[in-house]
Design goal:
This protein folds into two domains: 168 residues, Quinone Oxidoreductase, Chain A, domain 1, CATH 3.90.180.10; 135 residues, NAD(P)-binding Rossmann-like Domain (Rossmann fold), CATH 3.40.50.720. The chain is built from eight helices and 16 strands. The strands form three sheets. Strands 1, 4, 5, 6, 7, 8, 15 and 16 form an eight-stranded mixed sheet that branches. The chain has a six-stranded parallel sheet with strand order 11-10-9-12-13-14, with helices on both faces. InterPro entries: ADH-like_C, ADH-like_N, ADH_Zn_CS, GroES-like_sf, NAD(P)-bd_dom_sf, Zn_alcohol_dh.
Length: 332
């Protein structure tokens, strides 16, 4: 294992009970042969994960949730520096700036820590010239890009009208990726005024509150979207989109309740309800390329930066919708 000077101990966050954390001392982990030790420079909140886990609810319906939660979890949107590499790693080198491009889904420590080990195949190198807030949420960019991959199976978004429901972090990324992929028009939908305004700054051509009176349900109307992405997971919102979209509505938000699809949606031609796809490296590389091209500004999602030890305060900002994302600094 090649390494630079690394301390023996570090600090990491542990959610010990609903609403309670410890900013605890722990040993710096040693990477396995296929792993990398990452010095975490910045880690972004993932609001749904943070709100659920700190709030005492599992992220997905039916899952078990036990405390203390896995150390460093649910932190997974991270940028850092390679501090050491395992003996089998040839793709990355010490000192290189990297981002975690996918959450492995394994029961393992997360990036809410000063150091974390991660498989080399789940990291991608990025430029060290850009601020941490521009890179930390690449994993979210990858996740959203997967929905565009699904729409690409039906002809894609280039030259088309695209509706995005829910202008939280995922929706604001979707607005930008829609323009990156050549959408002719992007309709952002959210009840929060500030988020609609930010969507316009990030490339939306039109915004809606989501009220039926302001956008009549008519798939043949010139205002209808060609395709749409739902980033809310709310059944009434998905049903709202189905009645205002000509070809397909892709699901990104975690759906918790049944969605009603009635016979009228089958004709004209019928509108397709598209499920989610698989996380993949190509989607992550597309997100990174969009950042490099200047068509995806992930730092625009960061409302504030806080020390990681102020995690509960940061999640409170998310809960009250006073922040879109919080960038946590493990070293502050």
């Amino acid at each position: 294992m090649n390494a630079v000077s690394i301390p023996q101990t570090m600090r990491r966050l542990v959610i010990t009970a609903p609403g309670e954390i410890e900013w605890a001392e722990a040993s710096v982990p040693t990477p396995k042969p296929e792993e990398v030790l990452v010095k975490v420079l910045g880690v972004s909140s993932c609001p749904h994960w943070d709100l659920h886990i700190l709030g005492g609810e599992p992220m997905f319906p039916g899952q078990d949730l036990h405390y203390p939660y896995l150390p460093g979890q649910p932190g997974h949107e991270a940028v850092g520096e390679v501090a050491a590499v395992g003996s089998a790693v040839a793709s990355l080198r010490v000192g290189q700036r990297v981002v975690a491009w996918r959450d492995t889904g394994e029961a393992r420590p997360g990036f809410y820590a000063q150091f974390n080990t991660f498989r080399a195949v789940d990291l991608l190198p990025v430029s060290a010239e850009r601020p941490h807030g521009q890179w930390a949420s690449v994993e979210l960019g990858m996740c959203v890009e997967v929905s565009f991959q699904r729409l690409a199976e039906l002809g894609g978004v280039r030259g088309r009208r695209v509706a995005i429901a829910g202008l939280g972090p995922a929706g604001l990324v979707a607005v930008q990726l829609a323009r990156h992929h050549g959408a002719a028009a992007v309709i952002g939908m959210d009840p929060v005024t500030e988020r609609r305004e930010l969507a316009l700054r990030l490339g939306a051509t039109h915004v809606e509150t989501g009220e039926a009176a302001s956008w009549p349900a008519d798939r043949n109307d010139e205002r209808a979207a060609d395709v749409a992405i739902d980033c809310t997971g709310l059944a009434p919102v998905v049903e709202f989109l189905l009645r205002r979209t000509r070809q397909a509505v892709a699901l990104f938000g975690v759906v918790r309740d049944p969605i009603r699809y009635d016979g009228a949606l089958m004709w004209g031609p019928g509108v397709t309800l598209v499920g989610y796809g698989d996380h993949n490296r190509t989607a992550a590389e597309t997100a990174i390329a969009a950042v490099e091209a200047g068509t995806l500004d992930l730092s625009a999602l960061i409302t504030t930066t806080l020390p990681l030890r102020d995690y509960v305060r940061g999640v409170g900002l998310l809960r009250r919708k006073e922040a879109i994302k919080v960038l946590f600094d493990p070293w502050a």
